[in-house]
Amino acid sequence: MDTEPKGVTTKYIVGLIVVAFIIIGVSFVGGKRSAPEKADVDAQEAAENAQSAEAMKKQAAVEIDYTYENGFTPDHVTIKSGATVKFVNNSSSEMWVASNPHPFHTDYPGFDENQSVLKGGIYQFTFTKMGNWGFHNHRRPKIGGVINVK
Ligand SMILES: [Cu+2]
């Protein structure tokens, strides 16, 4: 008399376990199916971010010419953080681009050509710190300009 209710209960429990396994199995398959979709979205986002970063760099690329007559032209530029500024010596005298203040160059450590270049010489610097960075020609300290990094 005792065994029959137990048997029914056991069958019921086994049935529940089977149903639970089916549910777990279905959710696993579902999980596997959605995982590649998420990876695709991530890859797409990464590609879009890389493209916009590239576009930003191109957009913000700036060249500043140095002549004895006009100094730095333009002498005030606004760029985005991560952009590179190219200083070109078009004068027949020396150019040594450096951060203010002269002679210590401490406002933006690292923004310092550390040497003079003659005509045709180029100094490139990539700005990653936001702010207004004054600079000058270390060989003619009164001649300078400002790089505004946003
Ligand atoms: Cu200086």
Give a structural overview:
The protein is of the alpha/beta class and 150 residues long. It has two domains: 1-60; 61-149, Immunoglobulin-like (Sandwich), CATH 2.60.40.420. It is 39% helix and 29% strand. Strand 7 and strand 8 form a beta hairpin. It is elongated and about 100 Å long. Bound molecules: copper (II) ion (CU). Copper (II) ion is lined by residues 98, 102-103, 105, 136, 138, 141.
Précis, in short:
The chain has one helix at 3-60, and strands at residues 62-67, 71-73, 76-79, 84-89, 97-99, 122-126, 131-137, 140-149.
Can you give keywords for this protein?
2 domains; four-stranded mixed beta sheet; binds copper (II) ion; 150 residues; 1 helix; alpha/beta; Immunoglobulin-like; 39% helix
Mean pLDDT: 80
What is the quaternary state of this protein?
single chain
The CATH architecture classification of the largest domain is Sandwich
Percentage of residues in DSSP E strands: 25-35%
**In total, how many domains does the architecture comprise?**
2
CATH superfamily of the largest domain: Cupredoxins -  blue copper proteins
| Distance between the first and last residues' Cα | 85 Å
The CATH class designation of the largest domain is Mainly Beta
Estimated structural class: alpha/beta
